[in-house]
Design brief:
heterodimer; A: mainly beta; 16-stranded antiparallel β-barrel; 16 strands; B: Hypothetical Protein Ychn, Chain: A; 5 strands; 46% helix; globular; disordered N terminus
């Protein structure tokens, strides 16, 4: 019953997809030109059989928030352990292999990546333990013009902030809307809410399962088409809706839709820093089984629009996103995840690459309102507004140092929650990203 | 319930796409070295470039070298041939990511030769002949072509 609805939708979108494929099949695509293509495909007939690659991100962060009545909540603590207000960490340490297994037939590509860093994927928190995790394992079949097929575990088509490669992400932390509304957490039966704690020995991460990391296991049909200086990209995907966990926990499948149209200032340029103006929109919907009452299911919807502009020395991007159902209530509150609440938020950010230097200046404003319209109770309306100023120093094309300072202003309409949020203050973060 | 009437057109389209994507196209044989030289009587410099590696870096390098030679000598003053064999034949596969650059070089007078021995060997592995870029011309053996070009006065290089 739950499977039938997405299937019917999927048939309609598959038909549209095939029609588009027919219309665009004669047009050559720009190949590695956007995140879906960069991550999902290899350059035709010259990709390596096995290219080893990855990146490491050692970092330090310091939170300047004050406690309330001597106790602290997760926004005032350094993740993913959420036990203190300052810490060195290896945020990400990933190594993987990608390529075309049989070089004479480059129509088959593969991509595998593992995560050894300490973050919401690997850190088991209060109820679990650190576990390295397989973050990507996919095969792409490029046999059908206009309808490439990607199967396995990979980043689903969606928000630019989640979809982009982390090695190219100019900031250290995600925006509040992405971190809370899009980066999905999966409660496990037995995990209970944790009350505010004292530092330096807090332990407030109540989620033991790996965060979704904008990934899912499923099948995606996608491709990109050039029309003059424009490149249009589409994707349709069905997935388990269970993040990086490899099997489904219910019969419902998540539906993902994506479209982008990008104006290419330089068609010969390739890679993540290709000069372009891109507009995009995306939609996701699915159901989640209540971990604490498996007879109950909760619908989860997310959708958004955005734009990005990159032509050095300038970069500007903005997104607006909306969510309904499964609204995250903080890393200490797994039992409040299964809700039908509404949320929305977005960001505007820009970067300036100082000419003839290795410096890049960045500024981002993001806002997020969760539990819209709920005035009291366990999940009251709350607002999160953040300004982040940052600087990147690029040692070379693959190694950079990032310094970010965030000024946060959080609040809630409900006094008990507001008491904890009103003293959320500055956050300093320093990080080196080394890609190999 | 999934209706067959809905699926049939989709299935037919997909099948047609699959079928057309696997079609092979025969490429003509290359002209002899002597004929190639006659076709460019005013060339003051003659260069043969070998590509026998399949990696992206080598492909880019050999195309860059060809571009730089054309730029330095001028397309009317140079006779340039790229000979692909072994794993290097991937450069001349029809869907190669560098097809646009190859097309541009060919339009500037660069010849692209594909080794027939390699095509035969790859055909055995693939189960069918590899589909080549239409601008590729077949030579019986890539290495023999290099020798013949060298004997005819071409400067031979393997970037």
């Amino acid at each position: 019953m739950q499977l039938q609805k997405p299937n019917k939708k999927f048939q309609r979108y598959l038909a549209m997809t095939t029609l588009c494929a027919g219309l665009f099949a004669a047009m050559p695509s720009a190949h590695a030109a956007n995140w879906l293509m960069l991550q999902g495909t290899e350059p035709a007939d010259n990709a390596a059989r096995a290219k080893v690659w990855g990146f490491i991100q050692p970092m330090y962060s310091k939170d300047f928030s004050n406690g309330f009545a001597g106790k602290y909540v997760p926004p005032k603590l350094v993740g993913p352990s959420l036990d203190s207000q300052s810490s060195f960490n290896i945020l990400r340490a990933r190594i993987g292999v990608r390529g075309t297994g049989f070089p004479l037939d480059s129509k088959v590509n593969y991509f595998i990546l593992t995560e050894f860093g300490n973050n919401a994927i690997t850190n088991g928190g209060h109820y679990g333990s650190y576990k390295p995790y397989l973050s990507d394992a996919s095969v792409t079949l490029n046999y059908i013009k206009g309808a490439r097929v990607r199967l396995g575990l990979f980043k689903y088509p969606g928000s630019e902030e989640g979809l982009q490669g982390i090695a190219a992400f100019p900031y250290i932390g995600y925006t509040s809307v992405t971190n809370q509304m899009l980066l999905e957490r999966f409660p496990t039966n037995g995990e209970t809410n944790i009350a505010p704690q004292t530092v330096p020995n807090a332990d407030m991460n109540a989620f033991s399962a790996p965060a979704g990391a904008f990934r899912d296991v499923g099948a995606q049909v996608f491709d990109a088409f050039d029309v003059g200086n424009w490149e249009h990209t589409y994707a349709v995907m069905l997935g388990n809706g269970h993040g990086m966990q490899m099997t489904d926990n219910n019969s419902s499948k998540d539906l993902y839709l994506y479209w982008s149209s990008a104006y290419l200032f330089d068609k010969s340029a390739k890679g993540p820093f290709r000069p372009s103006l891109k507009m995009f929109t995306w939609y996701q919907s699915g159901k989640r089984t209540d971990a604490y009452d498996k007879t109950q299911e909760q619908e989860r919807k997310r959708y958004g629009v955005g734009v990005s502009y990159l032509k050095k020395p300038f970069r500007v991007s903005a997104e607006y996103m909306v969510g309904k159902g499964m609204i995250f209530q903080g890393a200490q509150n797994p039992q409040r995840m299964f809700n039908n609440n509404k949320a929305a938020g977005g960001y505007v950010e820009g970067g300036y690459f100082i000419p003839n230097t290795k410096f890049e200046l960045d500024l981002r404003y993001d806002t997020y309102k969760r539990n819209k319209g709920i005035l009291k109770g366990p999940t009251p309306e709350a607002k999160f507004n953040t300004w982040t100023a940052g600087v990147n120093y690029h040692f070379n094309k693959k190694t950079r140092f990032t310094l970010d300072y965030s000024i946060r202003k959080d609040s809630s309409v409900f006094t008990p929650v507001n008491n904890q949020l009103k003293d959320v203050k500055g956050l300093l973060a320093l990080q080196v990203t080394a890609v190999f | 319930m999934i209706h067959l009437s809905r699926i049939t057109p989709i299935a037919l389209l997909l099948a047609a796409s699959l079928a057309t994507s696997g079609l092979a196209q025969a490429n003509p044989n290359a002209e002899s070295v002597a004929a190639a030289i006659q076709a460019k009587p005013f060339a003051q410099t003659r260069v043969a470039l070998q590509i026998s590696d399949g990696g992206a870096g080598k492909q880019t390098l050999v195309l860059n070298v060809a571009h730089n030679l054309l730029k330095f000598y001028g397309q009317d003053k140079i006779d340039l041939e790229i000979v692909a064999f072994g794993p290097g034949l991937r450069l001349l596969f029809k869907g190669n990511a560098n097809s646009q650059r190859i097309q541009e070089l060919a339009a500037s007078g660069v010849r692209f030769s594909a080794c027939e021995n390699t095509i035969k060997a790859m055909s055995k592995k693939l189960g069918h002949p590899p589909e080549l870029n239409p601008i590729a011309r077949i030579v019986p053996a890539g290495i023999v072509r290099m020798v013949e070009l060298n004997k005819a006065g071409f400067f031979v290089a393997r970037p």
